[in-house]
Amino acid sequence: MKTYLNVTRKWSLGLMVAGLGLFTACNDDPEPEMPFTPGMESFDYGFNEGQLLDNPATAYDGDGEGDHPRNLSAELEIKEMENGNAEVTIRLENGLDGVQYPVHVHDAADPSTTPNGTPYNETPNGDIFAGMISISNGMGSQTMQTEMNYDMLLDAYEGFLVVHDPTQEISTTNLGTYLVLGVFGQELPEAEANLRSETFMYDFNEGQLLDNTDLAYEGDHARNLMAEIMVEEMIDGNAKITISLMNTMEGMTYMVHAHDAADPSTTPNGTPYNETPNGDIFAGGIEGNGGTVMAENDLMISFNELTRNYEGFLVVHDPTQDISTVDLTTYLVLGSFAR
Question: Residue span of the signal peptide, if any (predicted)?
Fold first, then answer.
């Protein structure tokens, strides 16, 4: 019995010693390196509708020199590199294909110390981000590696993210030219778009367009018909038009056309317009109902392009006689389009 007990104790002690040796040997092994897990934060920025300063007067000015859709947005991504510094990536969405966008970070500053009283330095901080972002399929991005500590950039840096309008000259003072304006490293929620609309009224053709009564309407239609064009700016930058006719004849189809202006020396019959209507702007029949009727068309040109640059004429033809594209006395309405 004693022999058995002694053997058992010696065996147990040997196992304990061996286990202790293994434990010690394991503790002598170097600790495995933990993989580097970089910090990363991202921030979304909506189009500049004046929401940063809660002031519509600082929103992008569509009536200014530029002509950009109001659906562009930006994303700022700040990522920690292995050396502890920050990598900055800026992405743009809904940009104009083939266009380069100037994108800058501007340091915050005391307005009393800046040349034009801006709350930021007008010279961008290229150590954080200043570059041109090219757009393809509506998207574009660029990455810059900074010399600033990741946590310092996130927690201590004060500045602004600006996306300038590539359709006009850069201004560092006119906030109405900024497509995106936000605090660096802070979300800028989207705001309701300041979309424009404008209405143009047209009286019956009494020869007033050319100040010549010999060109006034001659026919059997009542002379109280009037027309209206409403032009609306859409979020994608294009224009939508609605043409209304008032005091129509019930059951009669009115042919309504946009005719591009032209040099009379180049047209077959010397007309100051192309006789073939421009269906991309408007060409169609509108059926009368004894009152007011309307029709719409979505254009592939911008609000500004239509109301500033397009040169053409609105013509409402008389449904009581054959259409003529040369005899102005058959036109119920004749006026400059969207003017």
Answer: 1-27
